[in-house]
Amino acid sequence: MVAVADGLPTAEAGTSSRTFIRSQKLHPRKRGFCPGQPGTLPGVSVVLLATDSDGIYDEIEAAVGGTYQVSRVRAGEHVQKACEQLTPDVILLDLQIGNMGGMATSMLLKQEMRAGRLDDAEVLMLLDREADVWLAGQAEADGWLVKPLNSIRIRKAVQALLDGDAVREGPAAQQTSTDLNAGDGDAEGTVVEGTEAD
User: Fold this and answer.
1) 53: closest CA among 73, 67, 82, 77?
2) Considering the entire predicted model, what is its pTM?
3) In this structure, what DSSP letter does residue 44 have?
4) Is the per-residue pLDDT at 182 higher than 90?
5) Distance between CA atoms of 188 and 168, rounded to whole angstroms?
């Protein structure tokens, strides 16, 4: 687990990296450990969560915390700095993040990635309602989930993004065939779209 100090993630004191690595799923596409980056572990995919909601953090940590390294920031303005320090593989942005919302944060991150100032990462928006789907697309998010969330959908979405697939929920998602909710029965219209031509 990674703690947050002054809004930026730091390695939690007293956590043995050796034991932590054994409890983590090693992702084959991970870019690798960068010794100059504090808080990262060798071969473990990093998920950065931007939310000021403790409830959302608890859901994400419960869903993927045992598989990936989860770091958290509480304000949108801290996301870019955390990305520079941690080089996350997936960035989860809550729609409402303190003083800088998820939409503005997503657009900023994508702009910085295109300019080469940040390493590429997948951005997953956590939307409050289906009506926000259009906004998430305009913010260039790689995928989105509509609240309420559950562990199965979160895990499948993060894994799909790491595998290079797009994850989309909502009205536009009704037209495709792959469903993250298979066997879940909770929400409808979740889609994983492959990036390769069929």
Assistant:
1) 73
2) 0.69
3) B
4) no
5) 11
